[in-house]
Design goal:
By secondary structure, this protein is α+β, with helices and mostly antiparallel strands. It has three helices and four strands. The longest helix is centred in the N-terminal third of the chain and has 12 residues, at 13-24.
């Protein structure tokens, strides 16, 4: 099983859509609220060079935005 981390904010509709999609596909993930967690927010900015959400980390791959095609590819979802 791949390690999936979701960085999001509570007001981001795409973040909620992503989490719902992961749950629907039975993909476990760890979620971090960047609005509340300044340390994680800085971590994401260092990793990606930008401040957009959602940011999804799948093992060593990073996906910015709710890109279903790329996420399906990385997670083996048909």
């Amino acid at each position: 099983m791949k390690k999936v981390i979701v960085y999001s904010t509570p007001t981001c509709i795409y973040c909620q859509m992503l989490k719902d999609w992961l749950k629907k596909n039975s993909i476990p993930f760890t979620g971090y609220d960047l609005f509340q967690d300044a340390e994680r927010r800085e971590e994401v900015i260092k990793k990606t060079g930008q401040m957009g959400v959602p940011v999804i980390e799948i093992d060593d791959d990073i996906v910015i935005g709710f890109d279903k095609k790329k996420l399906s590819e990385l997670l083996g979802i048909n």
